Amino acid sequence: xxxxxALTLIVxxxxxxxxxxxxxxxxxTYIHVEYIKLPTNAWNDYWTQMQEVWxxxxxxxxQKGELKSWKLFWVRFPAGQEIPYDIVNVxxxxxxxxxxxxxxxxxxxxxxxxxxxxxxxxxxxMNITNTVKTETxxxxxxxxxxxxxxxxxxxxxxxxxxxxxxAQEKADAYVRMEAEVFKPMHQVALxxxxxxxxxxxxxxxxxxxxxxxxxxxxxxxxxxxxxxSAGGLQDFQKVNPSLDQEGFNDIFRRxxxxxxxxxxxxxxxxxxx
Length: 273
Hints:
Keywords: Signal. Residues 1-25 form the signal peptide. With 273 residues, the chain is of the alpha+beta class. It has seven helices and eight strands; from the N terminus they run αβαββααββαββααβ. It has one domain (28-272): Alpha-Beta Plaits (2-Layer Sandwich), CATH 3.30.70.100. It has helices at 2-27, 43-63, 101-110, 118-126, 171-191, 233-239, 245-258; strands spanning 30-37, 69-77, 87-93, 130-143, 158-167, 195-203, 212-221, 260-272. An eight-stranded antiparallel β-barrel has the order 1-3-2-8-5-7-6-4.
């Protein structure tokens, strides 16, 4: 009898783990980020191209489950001619395969006859834009739902984007510290409405032998007045009431050894699906 109970328990644990892994795989999100510089006289043409050709295509792909969502940002800060890009086009995918251009291209060709071919649409867009670079990321941690599907996104469309670099040998430890120490603290700001969503992404489009691992953090604030309002001692004490100033300082010493913030930008949504 005891053997049967033990066997039943083992099977139950195995099935629970398998179910968890399957659910996790289903929830994976990959992000394709395209950084664009637009000439001053090209903004209207670019908007027209996106509205007439690309947005309908993305919308149809979302309806068929081939794309999770799409967001088009303009860079609010820093601004001016000195920055390399002022538009960021972001698509969200359920797997890394879906990020390839071939996926979008095949969808174009499957549309009804008379629609603009993918190659022609791409050339038309390239004629009025300068793509500075493209990157791909995978979401590794998030709070208050996923960034791209957050229902509160409609109420506030301003994001603080932080770029972090970590040595390859420290990257996993950095992710763990974000998940175990900073994510619960961010949840405090999410619960009281200062923060709408927080998402940590790990760059996948880099060489395996790269010295540094790039990360990107999306912080969606409820208002610009609340920008960077989270992260003080009082927020950490709501998670750990016994934390004192010395312990608080130690948290930032530890995270400083694991990563370096290279830059922080403000993006505002121009359009989205």
